[in-house]
Design brief:
By secondary structure, the chain is α+β, with helices and mostly antiparallel strands. Helices cover about 45% and strands about 25% of the residues. It contains four helices and four strands. A four-stranded antiparallel beta sheet has the order 1-2-3-4.
């Protein structure tokens, strides 16, 4: 997935969120001139995730707390941290 596509999908989901990190994602997307996509079946679980269907595919943007609950995803986050990078939010696509 291309960087702009990730930002486009993430911002489209986060535009309905009240989380401060979500506001930063949305503002960045606006500054980049990215158009927001239509989101169906939007759900938000405060402090954990937002999810919705974009172009017929289900996506989630989740918090580090959510990632701690998922061992497989948590292993990927640990790899990112070992590279000296930081993971605030992550977008997941359900198959």
């Amino acid at each position: 997935m291309l960087k702009n596509s990730v930002i486009e999908i993430t911002a489209s989901l986060e535009v309905n969120s009240e989380h401060p990190i979500a506001a930063g994602i949305v503002n960045t997307a606006k500054k980049m001139g990215i158009q927001f996509l239509k989101v169906d079946d939007f759900k938000a679980i405060p402090g954990k995730e937002v999810e919705g269907v974009v172009n017929g595919k289900k996506y989630k943007v989740v918090s580090p707390n959510y990632l701690k609950e998922d061992v497989e995803v948590n292993d990927e986050v640990e790899k990112v941290k070992q590279q000296g990078r930081h993971c605030k939010r992550k977008i997941l696509r359900k198959q």
